[in-house]
Structures are given as C-alpha cells and as structure tokens.
C-alpha cells in the first residue's frame, strides 16, 4: 500500500512493528528513487503510534487487525490520527463469511462449526488463526471515534477461493472488474473473505 500510494503522488508514512518486514519494505522503496522521496518508514506499534491527533489526511490499515485480539483499541488509536475531512480505511477479515472457504474446500466439519457459532476466529491463508469483524461492528467503532462510515465493500468474494488459479493478464483484469461490481452489492458483498470499511471525519467549517 505504501508503494501504491506513493506512486499515485501522495506523501506516505508507513509504520510496521516487525523489523524484518520494515527492512523488506525499505528495500522495495529504495529501489524506486522517484517514490522514495515521498516515503517515510518507521518502526512502531499500532497501540502506541507516535503521531499528533489529526496528523494524516488518510489512515490506511489493511490486513492487520485480524491478527490482533480485537479491533476496539486499534481503531481508536487509528481514528484519532485522521484530520478533519480525512478518511480511515480498514481492510480486515469479514466475520459474516466465516465457514464459506471451509465449505467450498470440502472441510464441512469446520464449516458447520463456524457457521453455527458465527465464531470470529478461523485459520487464514497463511495457516495462522485470524479473527473476523462484522462490517456493522467496524462502522460502530468508526462512529464512537467521531467518524462517519461510508458504504463498506466486500473484498475477495470469488477469487479468494481459487487456490490453483493462474490467470492470464486478461482473466485477472476481468476477475477484478467482477469483484469490483460485486463489492458494493448485496448479497455478494456479505460473502467477501475481507471487509473494507471506510469512514470520514467531517471537515471543520
Ligand atoms: C498481512 S501484513 C499486511 C501488511 C500491509 N498492510 C499490506 O497490506 O501489505 C500484517 C502486518 O501487520 C504487522 N503488525 C502486526 N501487529 C502489529 C502491531 N501491533 N502494530 C503494527 N504492525 C503490526 C505485521 O508485522 C505484518 O507486517
């Protein structure tokens, strides 16, 4: 995300807890001097981010809170960094769709257990247990932190389940367009492996 946002012309500050991941990110940024001049990388923890309130026009946290115990404290820490008129973008595991992956892969016992309990934790792509949030919960957390939720999207609705998929460039583009069309429409968006919740802090007059 740091590379993509910087390539789009934004000044980006990337924060990462793991020194190894930070080094890897730094190497990739350094490989592109035009982008590197707009990027600052820092080692840090989501619970103790060393920035002033309202320091950023956009706060992007993708693929992180699913690894944390819950989303309440992390989202409070992130929301305070959003400037008036700015946005908070959170991408995480979708609790509404627990059990879908397991059922499609034939692991019916796990699928049933998850579907019947609606449990938030299950084993993700990397073999690590991850925790889901519902879109409603993420929107509520945005509200209690002074932000206004925008319509949420489902992400990886279809292609997340195609483990042996090796698309051509054209198939990949077609798949992305299909995901995009489904991402904001029910009932498809509810089945996304991930949920993308975006919320805005109202601009001050
Ligand atoms: C799946 S990666 C996502 C990375 C990136 N956001 C992306 O979309 O490519 C999750 C990252 O969160 C980091 N992380 C986990 N707990 C964290 C914490 N408490 N504070 C900051 N980063 C954390 C991990 O070290 C890991 O690099």
Automatic annotation (TrEMBL):
Recorded superkingdom: Bacteria
Domain spans labelled Methyltransferase type: 4-89
GO molecular function annotation: S-adenosylmethionine-dependent methyltransferase activity
Protein name: Methyltransferase type 11 domain-containing protein
Species whose genome carries this gene: Streptomyces nanshensis
